Structures are given as structure tokens and as C-alpha cells.
Amino acid sequence: MYQKKYFFLLLFFFLSFGIFFSPHSATSAGLQYTLLEKIPGFASTNGSDLPAYIIAIYKLGLAVVTLSAVLMISIGGFLYLTSAGNTSSMGTAKGIIFDAVIGLVIALSSWVLLNVINPDLTTITLTPITTGIASVTPSVTIPAGGLTPATGNSQDLAKQILALKVTQESGECSSTTQRVTPKSNIQSIADGKAMSVCSHTCKSVRPHSSGCTDNAVNANETMLRAIATIKPTLNFTITSIAGGAHAQNSDHYKGNAIDIFPATQALLDAFIANGAVKDNGDRSGSFCEARNGSRVTCPGGADHIHIKF
After folding, report:
1. What percent of the chain has pLDDT over 70?
2. Among 31, 39, 234, 280, which one is least packed by beta carbons within 10 Å?
């Protein structure tokens, strides 16, 4: 019974902590904390880097368990050698050795197991902690003469946009070959192809949605240029281009519109200054939009900004 408890405790411990063991950790910006005690063997670990701190704990635990496994194997070997032919003592010794070896193998392979199941499980991603108090976004001053337009053709601009990491990777619809997301739309343009389009009838990702077509529409080049021009100065994320459930005759399906977040007046003004169509109050241009689809003022009540070119 003791050996079984040892085995399952070891299994639970390292499958739990294995999710934090990743060579690609994300730094928790803004956290400043000096450790009162250093982690043995990892004196350089900084408390301001939480992912690295957790990984150091995991590695220390792995070292401790490895030494413990060696100790248990030694104890099992000693019991086996001193059993003097006693079948019960030999069985106990073999059980200790077997459980120690199996536990050590699981501890050493926990990261591999999780990486095979889902690589995202082995990567730490930290998001800022909010306190309920409205955060103040530092104001960004746009030069009086405007931003310097990005250069290149549609394919060049798409590659620049991918490098800026401005596109969301999740989507509501899927074609026969891929999930249709803002990132996949831009990737198609960068690959010299047209974007995949999913119509307003899409309801799910799998199985592929009816009305989803690959290589269907080209992206408006002015739209691509505006994205590549504004992103280095004003931060935003594209949440939809040619995929997702929009109105039946939406400009999204013509390659002439994007949805972005956050919904700020500064972003809306910047896109209009870089070629987006200004709205005249009847939803015919670019405007801040609520979750229910209604036109609202920025940023009050807005879920995203609908940008039309």
C-alpha cells in the first residue's frame, strides 16, 4: 500500500507542475518583487519573473524527486539483498524498486507527455491583474503630419502585419481546409493567395461551416497599409476580417472591413486618417459597435470598432 501511495503522489505532483516547465516562458511585466530567500541552486532567479520562478521550483522539485527515487531504489536493493530468500520480503523490495523507477520515469517525462497532448499546456501565459479600478492608458501623440505610411504591395504588407502580431488566432468558422481567423486571412495574403471567406450562416468551427470558401476574396490594399501603419504607434488587435457571423452583405465578405479592439476614439480617428471610410451616422462607414450590433460612441458601451475601407 505504501508503494502505491508513493507512486500516485509522485504522478500527481509532476503532472501538475509539468505544465509550468517550458523553455518559452512569458515575462510578467510590471511585477517587481525581491525574493527574501533564493531557491537552492537557482540563486539568480528574480522574483519579478514569475514564470522563471515557477520553472526553478519545478526543476528543484525534479532534482529532489530524482534523489528520492535513487534513495528508494537503494532501500529496495538493500531489502532485496537482506531478504535471505524470504518471498514476502523479496516481493516488498521489488515493489519499492519498481514504483521508484516508474515514478522517476513519469517525473522526467511529464513535460513530454503534456507537450504531446497539447503544446499550449507547456507554455506559461500571464495576463495583467486588474483591480477593478479603471486603468489609465498612456496617451500616444500622433505627429501633426500623420503617420508615415507603410510601403509595399499587398503581399509585403501582409508579411509586415504578421510580424506585428496584430491578428487574433481564434475564429468562429472553418472551411474544408482550415479555421478561418484574422491570422489565417492575413497569412493567405502573405502566401500570395486570396482570403478564405465564411458567410453569415456560419455557426461552428467543426465540422466546416456551410458558406465557407477558400481563396475567395482579396484584401483591400489600403486596409492592409493602414493596419501596418497604425499598429507600431497605437496598439490594437484584429478580431475579424473575412470570417465570422456578420450581416449578409457585410463588407467583411468583400475584403473591405475589419473589426478591432479596443474601441477607442484615437484608433477610429487614426484609421479614418489612413483611408478608412468615415461614418455619417447611418453605419455606412467606420464606427464603434456594441456587442448587439448597434452603433455607439467610443468608448462607452462599445465592444469593438468596425473599420470599413
Report:
1. 70
2. 280
